[in-house]
What we know:
Elements: H1 4-23, H2 30-49, H3 56-67, H4 71-79, H5 85-114, H6 124-148, H7 154-169, H8 175-187
Helix pairs in contact: 1-2, 1-5, 2-3, 2-5, 3-6, 4-5, 5-6, 7-8
Amino acid sequence: MESKREKANEIIQNHVLWASGAGAVPIPVLDIAAVTAVQMDMLKQLCRLYEIDFNESSGKSLISAVAGSTLARIGASFVKSIPGIGSLLGGVSMSILSSASTYGMGQVFVSQFEAGYGLFNFDTNRAKKEYEEQYEKGKEYASNLQKKDEKPDKGEIFKKLDELLNLKKSGILTEDEFNRKKEDLLKKL
């Protein structure tokens, strides 16, 4: 039987991969909105797993408070607006930052929930310090995860297709983005 922590790590892993894709959205600022939506979905799933009352407004506030300034992400986002090379450089850096941030955020929320905190009595000071450490670990984690993800099993592909469909239904992905990512996944079968 899978432990709660193992399930939490699986939720985080899936959302790190989705954040990587969301960070690569070629339109400045829309990429930040997509990553935020992915992180909010991750938080909602973690709250459900740990039986914590979820509140979207509180969740957004905590994500913002823990991650601090998003200037680095915004900077990477705006680099995309430079004709030609900007899309490539901005997309790559935003994808890495998005993955690392999502990993760090997920680890912080799991740590807080396992310590008995919820969204309404969250230890923000402790969380900020922990986030900085986890964010750094997230850079390496995301890189390793993307390498591992290059050869997923069929069950994982179908699971990711289902998650992709949910992102499209919620408006995070356009029809074209959905179809491109779906084709990429189906090629791995």
